[in-house]
Amino acid sequence: MTSPAVTIDAHAFELQRLLEHVAGIPPIRVAVVHSCDAPSLQGALDARKAGLIEPVLVAPRAKLETVAAASGLDVSGIDIEDVAHSHAAAARAAELARDGKVEALMKGSLHTDELMAAVVARESGLRTKRRVSHCFVLHTPRYPRPFIVTDAAINLQPDLLQKADIVRNAIDLAHVIGVERPRVAILAAVETVNPSMPATLDAAALCKMADRGQIVGGALDGPLAFDNAVSPEAARTKGIVSEVAGQADILVVPDLESGNMLAKQLVYLGDATSAGIVLGAKVPVILTSRADPEISRIASCALALLLARHYRTSPP
User: Residue 173 is part of which domain span?
Assistant: First the structure.
């Protein structure tokens, strides 16, 4: 007889591990900003059902209730902050975070730049000494552990000092999710320093900054090409001897375009699941796309829960 095949959904398994990690932590109040379409409203309600957040819906009440009724979603019993439009929703959500009435923000159906403009505005009171940056936490069946790609959503063409903050934010996130000393690969097209390729110069400088204690908490190496950052075989073939090469926990990309393409290729062609979070502000910001599946929205809220708890004792 042929034994029946047994398959394991790796993504569901990783989500279950993440949810087990946050089990027992009370949900946090989250301002859900302009959730005026079915996917974003459904995502907030799913995270509430999972025990991760207590949403505060910041949106035009009439528009929100119309969307809820048309989609068969129940928003009764949930706090609603009635505002005129998406711009006002972003500003009001930032006020709620500044005043300590919510511990995180969650993007709804407005544009990312509209939300982040309210977060980084001087009057918002949410800025820190760090530059804000986005982290994708990804898991693919072809890699033995979850890993971080940064920055693929906020900083267009970061300079050296901005990249240093991007690395620091990613290291902080890795610590919060349980990676004690994350291995950080600074990506470029090649693994050697080339004056004609600015990404390689930045990578070398970041590694020297780590040597001098300007970046702490992780092991840095770069420049590394993508293959020898994630493949031990590729690293050995190139003769790279490094504690990072072939086993990176964090992949730091040269710019937003390369990072965004890398992350989406991993999701759509590499069967990866993702969670998205913004660090560098006084509260975590949950960034999800309308195209994201339920598993990504719930995982992103779980990350926000871990970060918010961490910020209570170690403010950013």
Answer: 130-280
Whether 3 has a pLDDT exceeding 50, the answer reads: no
Q: Is the pLDDT of residue 4 over 70?
A: no
Q: For the ranges 15-19, 54-58, 69-73, 83-87, which has the lowest average pLDDT?
A: 15-19
285 within some domain:
no
Looking at the fold, whether 138 and 116 belong to one and the same domain comes out as no
Round to whole Å and give the CA distance between 33 and 167.
27
**Cα distance between residue 60 and residue 55, in whole Å:** 15
> In the chain, how many domains are there?
2
Buried/exposed 195-208: b ≥16 CB within 10 Å, e otherwise: eebebbbbbbbbbe
Same domain assignment for residues 118 and 158: no
Any domain includes 286: no
What strand order describes the sheet that includes 53-59? Answer: 79-82, 53-59, 28-33, 104-107, 285-286, 273-279, 133-139, 147-150, 250-252, 183-187, 219-224
Whether 252 is in a domain gets the answer: yes
Cβ atoms of 89 and 80 closer than 8 Å? no
> Looking at residues 178-203, what average pLDDT do you find?
97
Query: What is the identity of the amino acid at 286?
Result: I
The verdict on residue 22 lying in a domain is yes
